[in-house]
Each structure stands twice: as structure tokens, then as C-alpha cells.
Model the fold of this input.
Amino acid sequence: MSATFEPAVAFGALLREHPDTARFYDGCTAEQRQAILHQLSQIRSQEELSSFVAHLPSAAL
Done:
């Protein structure tokens, strides 16, 4: 089994751990969600993703 980093899967898990971020994401428009998901493709590590999720509510979309 491969230990491939899957940002989209990890993003979902981190949303469950960060209720403020989950509420922010839930309130986004479809276009904003698409922009967030597009950014996930540029994230290369779990640490980078954790930081992205922690700071998402303060991000300017």
C-alpha cells in the first residue's frame, strides 16, 4: 500500500477537526469552494495543509 498524500481526503478530515473552518467552508459559494479545492492541488505536505486549514477563515477569497 502506498503512503501517497491525498490533499482532498486530508482536507475533509481536517475540517472535522476545525469546526470554525468547517463553518466558514459551509458558508462559501460554489465558486469560492471551487477556488479552495483548486488550491488543494498545490499543497504538497500535511504540514502545509494543516496551516492552510487553520488560516482559511481569515483568507481573502
